């Protein structure tokens, strides 16, 4: 039985039945609950949802982007990954350098006005091409500030030094697997103003027992329909990668969410997904020749046996 989909759908059902209507930063509106935990046994398969198609290659390239310590969307665009485009685009259209059509509140307007959406898509394409082709533009408007990659790989301490939290985790798991300090933190209070989007998955911790590596990740805010399936698969993949380098098996993935919500314009999509029967989970294959997780490319990570239901589209709230 596929417990991953069922566990996720139980959360969706719980929110719809027990959640409270709540306003939010984007102006979209949500149904929200505060505090929820889920557990996934990684020995039973890779927890990529089957009740809708989730684009695995986007998850891979985003995670590798984090692990490279990169904060510029150029790498993502080079890998045909557009999940961070809107935040870089927002940085550009709100600057004095932007002279195109008014893009105020483009996230909501593009959903409600077909004519505006056509203009928005044109401007977004211009932004993407400029990031890919213009080094100066990419440096200024492709960079999202001190987001995940910066915090994971170059955390700035109070002593003025920078710390590679991912390398620390790997080294510590190898030399002291019973440590209770196998933790990475992406939430830096002093740098929130320098981040285009403050971290949603703000911390994670590893745990080693019986030769298996488990991971618990914490989220302050979570878009259940669009974001959470990515988050689950991304941290599952991170656990697999670090387990391979540390010569361990994978154990459990544990999710702990604070403000866990379904956007008001995702409710019908969620209901459609809840009507679908889960299928068998896939597995993943990692390139065994890669000794370090920092050496992995997208082609080194393969998904095997993924047979999901079709995709379900929904707008992203920016």
Automatic annotation (TrEMBL):
<feature type="binding site">
    <location>
        <begin position="180"/>
        <end position="181"/>
    </location>
    <ligand>
        <name>dUMP</name>
    </ligand>
</feature>
<comment type="function">
    <text>Catalyzes the reductive methylation of 2'-deoxyuridine-5'-monophosphate (dUMP) to 2'-deoxythymidine-5'-monophosphate (dTMP) while utilizing 5,10-methylenetetrahydrofolate (mTHF) as the methyl donor and reductant in the reaction, yielding dihydrofolate (DHF) as a by-product. This enzymatic reaction provides an intracellular de novo source of dTMP, an essential precursor for DNA biosynthesis.</text>
</comment>
<dbReference type="InterPro" id="IPR045097">
    <property type="entry name" value="Thymidate_synth/dCMP_Mease"/>
</dbReference>
<dbReference type="InterPro" id="IPR036926">
    <property type="entry name" value="Thymidate_synth/dCMP_Mease_sf"/>
</dbReference>
<dbReference type="InterPro" id="IPR023451">
    <property type="entry name" value="Thymidate_synth/dCMP_Mease_dom"/>
</dbReference>
<protein>
    <recommendedName>
        <fullName>Thymidylate synthase</fullName>
        <ecNumber>2.1.1.45</ecNumber>
    </recommendedName>
</protein>
<feature type="binding site">
    <location>
        <position position="223"/>
    </location>
    <ligand>
        <name>(6R)-5,10-methylene-5,6,7,8-tetrahydrofolate</name>
    </ligand>
</feature>
<feature type="binding site" description="in other chain">
    <location>
        <position position="25"/>
    </location>
    <ligand>
        <name>dUMP</name>
    </ligand>
</feature>
<feature type="binding site">
    <location>
        <position position="317"/>
    </location>
    <ligand>
        <name>(6R)-5,10-methylene-5,6,7,8-tetrahydrofolate</name>
    </ligand>
</feature>
<comment type="pathway">
    <text>Pyrimidine metabolism; dTTP biosynthesis.</text>
</comment>
<comment type="similarity">
    <text>Belongs to the thymidylate synthase family. Bacterial-type ThyA subfamily.</text>
</comment>
<feature type="binding site" description="in other chain">
    <location>
        <begin position="220"/>
        <end position="223"/>
    </location>
    <ligand>
        <name>dUMP</name>
    </ligand>
</feature>
<dbReference type="GO" id="GO:0032259">
    <property type="term" value="P:methylation"/>
</dbReference>
<dbReference type="GO" id="GO:0006235">
    <property type="term" value="P:dTTP biosynthetic process"/>
</dbReference>
<dbReference type="Pfam" id="PF00303">
    <property type="entry name" value="Thymidylat_synt"/>
</dbReference>
<dbReference type="GO" id="GO:0006231">
    <property type="term" value="P:dTMP biosynthetic process"/>
</dbReference>
<keyword id="KW-0963">Cytoplasm</keyword>
<keyword id="KW-0808">Transferase</keyword>
<dbReference type="InterPro" id="IPR000398">
    <property type="entry name" value="Thymidylate_synthase"/>
</dbReference>
<dbReference type="GO" id="GO:0004799">
    <property type="term" value="F:thymidylate synthase activity"/>
</dbReference>
<dbReference type="GO" id="GO:0005829">
    <property type="term" value="C:cytosol"/>
</dbReference>
<feature type="active site" description="Nucleophile">
    <location>
        <position position="200"/>
    </location>
</feature>
<feature type="binding site" description="in other chain">
    <location>
        <begin position="261"/>
        <end position="263"/>
    </location>
    <ligand>
        <name>dUMP</name>
    </ligand>
</feature>
<keyword id="KW-0489">Methyltransferase</keyword>
<feature type="binding site" description="in other chain">
    <location>
        <position position="231"/>
    </location>
    <ligand>
        <name>dUMP</name>
    </ligand>
</feature>
<feature type="domain" description="Thymidylate synthase/dCMP hydroxymethylase">
    <location>
        <begin position="6"/>
        <end position="318"/>
    </location>
</feature>
<comment type="subunit">
    <text>Homodimer.</text>
</comment>
<keyword id="KW-0545">Nucleotide biosynthesis</keyword>
